[in-house]
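re: that chain from earlier
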Amino acid sequence: MKRRKYFYVEEENQFMQVAKELAKTRSLDPDWPTGGVLVSTRGRSSSGRKDGQVIGGGWNGSEYHLQFGCERKRLGIKTGERYDLCEGCDPKNHSEPRAIADAKNKGHDCNNADLYMWGHWWCCEPCWQALIDAGVKKVYLMKGANRKFKR
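^ sequence. v structure.
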């Protein structure tokens, strides 16, 4: 798979704040709330500053975790590995594909959109592929995410 690059913004960034609010209010993973928003990049000002709008939002977690807990956690599996062991950890329950699905359900094209993600410091391989397939251009993480969210 093609190597992707992350971009970083301050936590106060308006789109990062929307992602954070989704994580805090909608995530079904109390141990690792994550939220992501897709932002249209069609409207860029001459200064290069984004003048986009949020076209989709997603959050992580599932009812499975709330009912049964996490098989991967019980087995001590590292983050990003062996999603097949736990229904609740399936990438369909990650914020990135949910944001893509939300945007598409609202009739938006994700091509050239940017993703802002709060609550994590990287995207797993299945989520990267979903972003690539949807045409998402850039992924923004919060500055210091690797220190704040890495366990």
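Confidence is low (pLDDT under 50) at residues 44-50.
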